[in-house]
């Protein structure tokens, strides 16, 4: 039999047992669920903002009506007849859409007539047919003259090409249309001058060029304006002769050459000198092209696009004065004040 151990002298051993805690709060997935809910809510919020931005006002009204349908009280009640289910003795049946007659108070010196808002004119306002026909006729006349100017422009260019001595002078001729009419300009270009320096006597080839211009101009009845131009180079003789005199004399010399070629003198209504005040190239005031003669066939009708229809009544409509409020009458029941017609 084994000897019995004496445990009285042995140390006491205390064993502590700890229960392991749940660390899922720090290392689990619960926070992901909360974050996903937050992201979903933000996505829905921004999606709502986008929808509000792209939705039109009419679409918003449809959506609002869907969530807030028309109540029964707004619908037609009763039998839908004249009284709408009401008795003639009830106050609602005595309500009328018409308003009481207002009283207009005219100001001194401003005769006024009263016109009710619910008044319906017996007929449409009269349209000034004569004025409209006059406008259409002027428009057609302007278009017809524009076509003639284009034909004259082509004829002048063709005439220059048909003359062997003038073929090289095509650069000296500029033809275009302006609000005034058909402008034919004979300019100094390509080293070829139309007049000797400081002289108003044209060269022989300048006279030939004016002859071809006259052959085309003679086919149209338009009046002519002849203008002389110089460049900005100072020119002054001992007697005070300057660019104003030179440009005027060159314009007169061109007039005489055209009349010698067969132009009717009565068609010329203006001969003037512009000196250097109307350059062809303002950025190059001393350019040779600024020295030129301008022959303008004046329009007999306004340029196309410049003809505007007048008002139907033949004059601009007068602005009516501000209506005078009638005392004791609500604002929505004030009469409309219309100026009396002028006699």
UniProtKB/TrEMBL annotation:
Topology of this chain in the membrane: Single-pass membrane protein
Q: Member of which family?
A: Belongs to the MotB family.
Q: Which residues form a coiled coil?
A: 132-162
TM spans, by residue?
33-52
Q: Which domain of life is it from?
A: Bacteria
Q: What is its main location?
A: membrane
Keyword entries, A-Z:
Cell membrane, Coiled coil, Membrane, Transmembrane, Transmembrane helix
- What is the protein name given in its UniProt record? Chemotaxis protein MotB
Single GO cellular component term:
plasma membrane
Q: Which InterPro entries does this one have?
A: Bact_OuterMem_StrucFunc, MotB-like_N_dom, OmpA-like, OmpA-like_sf
Boundaries of each OmpA-like domain copy?
A: 182-301
Subcellular localization(s) per the UniProt record: Cell membrane
Which Pfam family, any one, appears in the UniProt record? MotB_plug
